[in-house]
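Supplementary Note 3. Input sequence used for the single-chain structure prediction.
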Amino acid sequence: MKPKIKILVNDKEYQVDADQTIMHALDSLGFKIPRLCYHPKLSIEGACRVCIVEVEGIKNFVASCSYPIADNMKIRTNTKELRRARRDIVELILDNHPEDCHTCERDGICELQRLAYAMGIRKRHFQGEKKKYEKDISGEAVIRDPEKCILCGRCVRMCEELQRVNALRYAHRGFNTVVMPAYNMSFKDSVCTGCGQCINVCPTAAFVEKNYTQELFEKLNDDSIIKIAHVAPSVRAAIGEAFDIPPGKAMEGEVAAALKKLGFDYVFDTQFSADLTIMEEANEFLERVQGKGKLPMITSCSSAWMKCVEQFYPELLDNVSTCKSPMSMMGSMIKTYFAKKMKIDPKKIFSVGVMCCTAKKYEASRPELRIEDMDPTDLVVTTREVAWMIKSAGIDFCNIKPEQFDNPMGISSGAGAIFGVTGGVMEAAIRTAYELLTGETLMNIEVNDIRGFKGIREGKIIMDGKEIRVAVAHGLGNAADLLDVVKKDPNKYHFIEIMGCPGGCIGGGGQPYASSNSVPLDEEILKKRAEALYNLDRSKVIRRSHENPDVQRIYKEFLGRPLSAVSHKLLHTHYSKKEPKGIIPKHIKSR
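The predicted structure, written as C-alpha cells, is reproduced below.
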C-alpha cells in the first residue's frame, strides 16, 4: 500500500497517494488539468505552462505536471485568474500559429485546437511578427512544418528518450527557437529513421506523413492499369478508431470491402506474405543454427529498424535476416507470380501497401528491393491516409458489409495476424521452426514469455534437444539496450526480434491520431489493438504459417521451396552500411 496524504482541492478534502505530481493527483480525482507539452511516456518538460494551478502559500502559479504534492496542500484548479492566465498562454501560442485550421491535416483532431475551444478562445487578440519557415518535404516518410511547431518538445524527447535516434533538437533562442535536425539539414540527409513517432506525439501538424492520397485517387481512376492493394495486420486492428469505433475491434472484412469500393481491382492480405516471410525466415534461422550463418539472427521486418541498423550498427548487418518484409515480399509476388498466373503485364500493375507505418514509404523507395527492374511496391498509404480516403469517397465504413480478401493471396494463418504486435514475428517463427526441425507439432503455440509490453522480453524453447534462447525488443531505444547485451555477449541469444515502434506495428507512425479522450501511444489502446490481433489468431482454423494452403501452393507452382534460387532472387535482399550525415547519438558514440 502506498502512503496516503491529505490535500484540499477547491476547498474539498481528498486522500491521494504520496510521491506524485499535482497533475497526477488531480487526474486520479477526476480533475483534468489542461496540458500541451506533457506526455506520460516522456520526461517532464514544463515548457507550455498551460497546466498551471494555484497552490496556497506560493505566490506564482505552479506547473502541475512537475510540482510535487505535499500533505495538507491547498490547490485551486479553476479560479478566474487561472482561467485568464491559461487562456492568455494559449492565445499567445495561437497568435504565432498559421491561420489555416480548416485546411490543416489535423483539423478536428488537433490538441491545440481542442484546447483553444475548451479555453473559450473565439478570436485572436494579439498581432505581431510571425515565424516564417519552409516545410521540409525532402524525406520519403515524414514532413516537418516548423511554422506549426509550438515548441512543446514532445518530438525531441520522443526521438531522444524512447527511440534514442536523436534526429531532432532545439536550435537558436527566444523568438527564433526552432526544432530541426542537426545543422538544419533535411530529413532526407539526417539520421531520421522515418518511424513517425514524432507524428504520433505532436499535438499539432508540425510533423505529418508524406501524403500520397491524391496520387492514389488519380491512379484509381486510371483504367489502363491494374490496381492492387494489400493490407498489413495492424491496420485492421486500428482503423476503426478513425471512425470513432472503440479500440480493440479487428475490421478485416470491412477494410477489404472499403478498398474494393474505392476502386482497387484486387485486395490481398499482407498476412499471407507474413506467412511467406515465416517460411523463409524460419528456414534461414534453422540453417544458421546448423552453422550456415551468423547468430543471433535478427529480424528484418521493421523498416525503421533497418535504417537504424544500417546507420548505427553496421557491424551487425551479417546478423540481420536477409528476408524482405511482408510488404516487399507481397509486392514481389504480385508482380511475378500473380502477374504470370493471370497473364498480366507486370508493368501495368500498380501495387499499393496499406500500412501502419510511415517508414514503409521509405522502404518502398529502396533500390535493394527492386525485382526485374521494378519496384515491388509503387505507393504506400498509412492507416490514417486510407481512413481519410474512405471518408472522402463517401463510403459508410461503420455499416459496410464485410468482404473476403481476394485469391490467390488472401488466405492467412493466425501466425500472420500476430505479426502486427511486438513478439508476434518471433512467436510465428517458433511455431514453424519447431515443426521443421523436430518433425513434431508444437502444441502450446502461444509463447507467453515473449508477449506483453515490457521493453525487452526473453524466452527459451527446447527444439530437438537444443535450448534456443530468444529475445524481443520494441522501440528503437529498447533495441539499443538489447544490442548492448548482444555486443557484450554474442552467444547469449540465438534469435532476436526488433520492431522499431512502441508496441510493434500496432503503435506505428501511421496509425490513427489519439482521440480527445486518450493520449498518443496510450498503452491501454495498444493492448486492445494487440488483443484484436491475438483474437484473430485464436479464431483461425490455421494458426501456423507452413499450414497455409495458399503458401503451400505458391511454393509448388512457383518458388519451389524455401531458400530456393527463385525465392532468394525475389524474397531476399542484403543491406549495407549507411554513413549518417547528422550528429551520431550519444548512446552510439559510447559504444
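The longest helix spans residues 270-289. The radius of gyration is 25 Å.
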